[in-house]
Amino acid sequence: MRALLALMLLPTLASAAEETGKAGARVDLPDPLSLGAMGQLLLGLALVVGLILVLAWLVRRVNGAPAQGRGMKVLAALPLGQRERAVLVQIGQEQMLLGVAPGRVSLLARFDEPVLDSAELRGAAFADRLQQVLGRGQSGS
Known about the structure:
By secondary structure, the protein is α+β, with helices and mostly antiparallel strands. The chain has three helices and four strands, in the order H-H-E-E-E-E-H. It has helices spanning about 1-25, 35-65, 120-140, and strands spanning about 70-80, 85-90, 95-100, 105-110. Strands 1-2-3-4 form a four-stranded antiparallel beta sheet. The chain starts with a helix and ends with a helix.
């Protein structure tokens, strides 16, 4: 039965293959380096990047991720070991010294009055960094 069906379909398959071969020989492909192709590529890339940005915004919005820097600041961090460090954090007017290790955060001390002034610390860090950069530029000349 299968052999009879195959014999009946053989002429149909042969003619379809012939037509495909003829049509395939005449197909002219557009130049991939043409202005239209490059524009289409850039438009597609822009759409994908835009979609990624929109999805990232939605994930942050839906998950309710807290806005960074809103009321909390890391004032200083001191490495104590390869993976451990002491971190001074300011929340409002209160400062806390935290011990941070992999998988664990411990409160070491709580200060009602600020130990370090965050404005002075930021300005001093910037001033020190600027002096380093300027010092390197002068020694290289």
